[in-house]
Amino acid sequence: MTAQPVRAAGMAWYTRQDYPRILEIMEDAEKLPPTYFAWSKAAERGKRDLERKGHIVITAIIDPDEFPVWCRARGLNIDAKARIQFANETAYAAINKTH
Fold this sequence. Notes:
Helices cover about 50% and strands about 10% of the residues. The chain has helices at about 20-25, 35-50, 65-75, 80-99, and strands at about 10-15, 55-60. The protein has a two-stranded parallel sheet with strand order 1-2. It is built from 4 helices and 2 strands; from the N terminus they run βααβαα. The chain has one domain (about 10-99).
């Protein structure tokens, strides 16, 4: 039997206490829901959808103090593209650590 590749998906994730600061630092904050509650509902729904499709979802918690530093080190804007890259790198590292 051939091993199936791991289908992992990284998702940017925020804590309730950090969400106001997340909105302050993101260059595209207008693309994010205005409240943690609204973001959380949408994020949980998205996570469940991915899991139903067979993905292992890795949540990548974004720290509003560290994320801008991470972005600058890679020459990235502090925006959706960087959030996706951060989540994907976090998922990749997590999967490679366990497999």
